[in-house]
Design a protein that fits this description.
By secondary structure, the protein is of the alpha/beta class. Helices cover 52% and strands 14% of the residues. The structure holds NADP nicotinamide-adenine-dinucleotide phosphate.
């Protein structure tokens, strides 16, 4: 075996061990009564996270724009065992709603142990044709509101030795086609919160910060978007993705890669960008 291949194989082995190890020590009891805010929880991965937290007996606030759907999710959370489940409707594209949602949570739960930032605004899955307004809007929803909510919640998380959990994407690490504005927002999240991770560690903050890198997950929105365009990429189950995010936050891990192959592709991308780019483009059924 050539030295570079040896290094690659060894890295993959270490990656597997590291990623598996990160979930080993999860104790569900730690979430009993935990005060949790989950954004983008009316559907998809956020909704699944709400149900898991509910089963663990957490006190929950969920948010998204659609009030009626949030109401149904809250009812299900209560039936699953949540100690408390409340919702507040909010549009993360506005200046005031990110603060309003955190304030509501702090008031209703008397503090915060987990802030899970997960929402994303709808965006086309298509070639970028110069829509600057949409890109600006998406940055507000997917990036600026995360920064605003994190800042608002940090004092409370500091007090409770809490956790900030950022749901990001594989495309924030390795860019793919047809999602330029979305990719930009996820890269911005990785950059901003990667920097904040250093700062929290350097000042011995009580707050843990987890950045979660997800590959393709079988939510309705994602499946609808990629239909007929992305080939041969298996989608991982949303409920399992949600559980892995929760475990990552609860065990105060800095990173999650789910499914695990996202970590391997991220490693290979730096080792051999040309091959990775070729393989990525091959999965797209796109003829200009
Ligand atoms: N699914 C995947 O394949 C995949 C892959 C990688 C990363 N991820 C990441 O995983 C997270 C969840 O993805 P998902 O597939 O579960 O998304 P999703 O099903 O599209 O859900 C998005 C959530 O965000 C809310 N939302 C949309 N616009 C909003 C706004 N302006 N203000 C407030 N809330 C808003 C939606 O509810 P309302 O419409 O009611 O507002 C919904 O609850 C995202 O951060 C995404 O980037 C997903």
């Amino acid at each position: 075996m050539r030295p570079l291949t040896k290094i690659l194989v060894a890295s993959i082995g270490v990656a597997f061990v590291a990623v598996h190890w990160s979930t080993v020590t999860f104790d569900p009891e730690t979430l009993q009564g935990a005060r949790v805010l989950v954004t983008g929880a009316s559907t998809g991965i956020g909704e699944q996270m709400a149900y898991h937290y509910a089963r663990f007996g957490a006190q929950l606030v969920i948010t998204a724009r659609r009030e009626k759907v949030l109401q149904q999710v809250v009812e299900k959370c209560l039936s699953l065992g949540a100690q408390k489940a409340l919702y507040i409707a909010g549009d993360m594209a506005t200046e005031s709603d990110p603060d309003k949602v955190v304030e509501f949570t702090l008031e209703k739960l008397g503090g915060l142990d987990y802030l899970v930032l997960n929402h994303i605004g709808p965006t086309p899955f298509s070639v970028w044709k110069g829509d600057i307004e949409h890109t600006r809007w998406l940055m507000k929803v997917n990036f600026f509101s995360y920064v605003q909510m994190a800042w608002k919640a940090l004092p409370s998380l500091e007090q409770s030795k809490g956790s900030l959990v950022i749901v990001s994407s594989f495309v924030g690490k390795v860019a793919g086609p047809l999602t330029a504005p979305y990719t930009a927002t996820k890269s911005a999240l990785n950059g901003f919160f990667g920097s904040l991770q250093h700062e929290l560690a350097m000042k011995n903050s009580n707050v843990s910060l987890s950045i979660c890198t997800l590959g393709l997950i079988d939510t309705e929105t994602a499946m609808e978007k990629i239909k007929g365009i992305v080939n041969n990429v298996p989608a991982a189950p949303a409920s399992e993705a949600a559980l892995n995010i929760i475990k990552t936050g609860a065990t105060r891990q800095a990173e999650l890669y789910y499914p695990y192959n996202t970590y391997i592709i991220t490693l290979i991308k730096d080792w051999n960008p040309a091959v990775t780019n070729y393989l990525i483009r091959r999965t797209y059924n796109y003829n200009p």
